Structure formats: C-alpha cells, structure tokens
Inverse folding.
C-alpha cells in the first residue's frame, strides 16, 4: 500500500506511477484523515510506501500527523520506502521520517527524492512550459530508477540533502511552520465565479465557499486552491499577483 499527499499533482503523479508498477493500492493521506481511518491490514509481501512533497525541508505536518496515528496490522518488517518530491533538496526530511516511523515500531528501508517543478508561487515564479516538460522528463526517468530499486528491495537512500541540512530541517522548518503559514492572506478577487473547486481540493477542509471562498485557520499551505482555481482568482496577499499557476500537466486526476 502506498500513502500519498499532494497539492498540485507532483507527488500524486509519482505515487500513481509507483503504485501501478508495484501493483500496490493507493491511499490519499488527506482523504484517510477526513475519514478518520488510520488502521490497515498488511499481507506478508505487501509494500508500505509514503510519497509526499517537501515543505520547508521537511514532510508536511499532515503526513507526520498521519504516520503518528498509523496502525499497520500484521506488519512483519514489510519493505518500507519514502519518496519526497521537491524543487531542489530535502534536508534531513528522511532522517526525521525514519525517527517518526521508528517510534511506531516501523522501519524505513529506503528513501528517494525527485526534483519536480515548484508550485510555491508565493516566493517563486512558475517555469516555462518547456522547462516544466524537461524537468518532468527527467523525473519520469528517476521514477523508473526508483521502481527498479523497489523491485530489488534495495536498502538505500538516494536523496539530495542540500547545503546545511540540519539548519534547514531543524531550525528553519519549525519557524516556517509557526510563522510562515498565514491563511489570512488568502483572498478571492472579483474574477471568482464561486465554482467551489477550492473548497473541494483543500486537503484540510479549511475553505468554505459562501459567495466567495473563506479561509479558516487550519491551512497546510499546499497552494492547491491558488494553483487550481480555473479563473486564477485566488491570491496570497501581493505575493502571487501577475504570476502563473502550476498543476502537474501529466497528472490525470
């Protein structure tokens, strides 16, 4: 079984390709949390996988919270892997994830990172279509390599740490989680048609559309609402004005 979290399709695309190649069931972490479902029964040969994006050099809080509540029946050292999608590097994400799994009596046998186009338009601009396609071509090759490693049940960690991984994951990430996520900055412009898509795609049920969308305080800053709005009507303060939007063009869901 493979558990994934995705805001704008990068991790979902990777998870879909891995699940098909490995013949594994795919579970949305956001959906499982909404259903209050944390208990699963494993077959002897079943894999356990986690696929998620990097948020400020760590796994999203939703992913960590899910794993902390996760109960795997019949777990017998089943081969367990994690894949993180990122723009550049992951810091100590895998080390932190391994510690979290160990606290649950689970092992992390392998970990991989995959470079993907960034969706974080609060700080960056969306790349050109040509650049996005080139990055995704390389990512597709990377996914094939990862599938080969999983087939062989290899114990390996192929990740891009980046410079100063301790500072990024242990110091900057907690500060980002405490001060960097400010839902009050979200708003919908007059282009909003009240279609309700932002409410539907929000993984934390943080958006309610009553005329125009309104944001609560339970935001994970996945930016699905901004990037998937069909009218580009959602903004984050002044940071996203006149910027492009991103959703993985190869993700079919």
């Amino acid at each position: 079984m493979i558990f994934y979290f995705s805001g704008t399709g990068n991790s979902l695309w990777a998870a879909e390709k891995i699940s098909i190649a490995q013949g594994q069931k795919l579970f949305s972490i956001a959906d499982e949390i909404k259903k209050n479902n944390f208990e699963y029964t494993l077959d002897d040969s079943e894999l356990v996988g986690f696929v998620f994006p990097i948020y400020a050099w760590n796994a999203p809080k939703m992913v960590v919270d899910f794993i902390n509540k996760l109960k795997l029946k019949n777990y017998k050292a089943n081969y367990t892997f994690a894949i993180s999608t990122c723009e550049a590097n992951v810091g100590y994400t895998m080390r932190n994830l391994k510690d979290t799994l160990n606290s649950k009596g689970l092992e992390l046998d392998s970990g991989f990172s995959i470079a993907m186009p960034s969706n974080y338009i609060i700080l960056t601009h969306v790349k050109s279509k040509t650049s996005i396609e080139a990055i995704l071509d390389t990512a597709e090759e990377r996914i094939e390599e990862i599938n080969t490693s999983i087939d062989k049940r290899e114990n390996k960690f192929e990740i891009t740490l980046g410079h100063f991984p301790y500072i990024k994951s242990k110091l900057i990430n907690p500060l980002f989680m405490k001060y960097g996520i400010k839902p009050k900055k979200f708003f919908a412009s007059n282009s909003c048609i009240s279609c309700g898509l932002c409410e539907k795609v929000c993984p934390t049920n943080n958006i309610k559309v009553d005329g125009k969308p309104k944001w609560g305080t339970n935001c994970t800053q996945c930016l699905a609402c901004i990037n998937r709005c069909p009218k580009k009507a959602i903004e984050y303060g002044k940071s996203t004005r006149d910027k492009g939007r991103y959703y993985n063009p190869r993700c079919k869901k």
In short: Residues 2-174 form a domain with the Rossmann fold fold (CATH 3.40.50.360).
